[in-house]
């Protein structure tokens, strides 16, 4: 992975104090000599977005930065402790239909050791090789929006925005050095609720 590409990326921040803010960890690991991303499957019993593919993350608490929040959530959700020195950079903020501004925090974990999913939040944790995620996205149209809905194939299914948009931007920036923007990519209708 090109850490310098992520570090040098000119991200676009969103200034929306009317929305809630969240940080997600775009966590690069090493597994059997391959660079991977940590991707979780959300627990079936969650009130919102149950069973969906996600990156470790959540709401930023009072006094936290996006980096603080993403690293805290990474620890809480999968048991991985990383310090601020593991952060390679930030990607563009992504505004969700559910009222969040998500800041993707790219970090390097190397071989992560044993991962322990938080049972109440996470059904499974996967280390997905970057080669499996660095694929052309699928775009569809919906009557509710003029923007294209983005999805990526993952483990026999599809991962949707916002996760798909963030992963797509990460792969374009880190793997190819292409400063791709994804804020315009839409979420499927089920994510609006």
Structure keywords:
metal ion binding, 193 residues, 11 strands, Nucleoside Triphosphate Pyrophosphohydrolase, metal-binding, 4 helices, 19% helix, alpha+beta, three-stranded antiparallel beta sheet, eight-stranded mixed beta sheet
Summarize the model shown.
This protein has 193 residues and is of the alpha+beta class.
**Strand pairing plus helix content: what structural class?**
alpha+beta
Q: What kind of sheet is the major sheet?
A: 8 strands, mixed
> Class of the domain at 3-134 in CATH?
Alpha Beta
Instruction: Give the CATH H-level superfamily of the domain at 3-134.
Output: Nucleoside Triphosphate Pyrophosphohydrolase
SSE pattern: HEEEEHEEEEHEEEH
Distance from first to last alpha carbon: 35 Å
Named CATH topology of the domain at 3-134:
Nucleoside Triphosphate Pyrophosphohydrolase
From the alpha carbons, calculate the radius of gyration and give it in angstroms: 15 Å
Percentage of β-strand residues:
25-35%
Q: Which architecture of the domain at 3-134 does the CATH hierarchy give at level 2? A: Alpha-Beta Complex
Share in helix: 10-25%
The count of DSSP E runs of length 2 or more, i.e. the number of strands, is: 11
In words, what does this structure look like?
The protein has four helices and eleven strands, in the order αββββαββββαβββα. By secondary structure, the protein is an alpha+beta fold. The chain has a domain at 3-134: Alpha-Beta Complex (Nucleoside Triphosphate Pyrophosphohydrolase), CATH 3.90.79. It is globular.
């Amino acid at each position: 992975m090109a850490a310098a590409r992520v570090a040098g990326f000119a991200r676009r921040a969103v200034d929306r104090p009317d929305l809630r803010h969240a940080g997600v960890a775009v966590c690069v690991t090493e597994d059997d000599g391959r660079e991977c991303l940590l991707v979780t499957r959300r627990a079936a019993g969650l009130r919102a977005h149950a069973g969906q593919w996600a990156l470790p993350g959540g709401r930023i608490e009072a006094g936290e930065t996006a980096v603080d929040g993403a690293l805290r959530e990474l620890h809480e959700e999968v048991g991985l402790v990383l310090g601020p020195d593991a952060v390679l950079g930030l990607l563009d903020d992504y505004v969700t239909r559910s009222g969040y501004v998500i800041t993707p925090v790219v970090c390097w974990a190397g071989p992560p050791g044993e991962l322990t999913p938080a049972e109440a939040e996470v059904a499974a944790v996967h280390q997905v090789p970057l080669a499996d995620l660095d694929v052309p996205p699928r775009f569809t149209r919906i009557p509710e929006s003029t923007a294209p809905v983005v999805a990526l194939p993952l483990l026999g299914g599809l991962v949707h925005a916002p996760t798909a948009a963030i992963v797509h931007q990460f792969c374009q920036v880190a793997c190819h050095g292409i400063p791709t923007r994804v804020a315009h990519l839409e979420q499927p209708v089920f994510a609006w609720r």
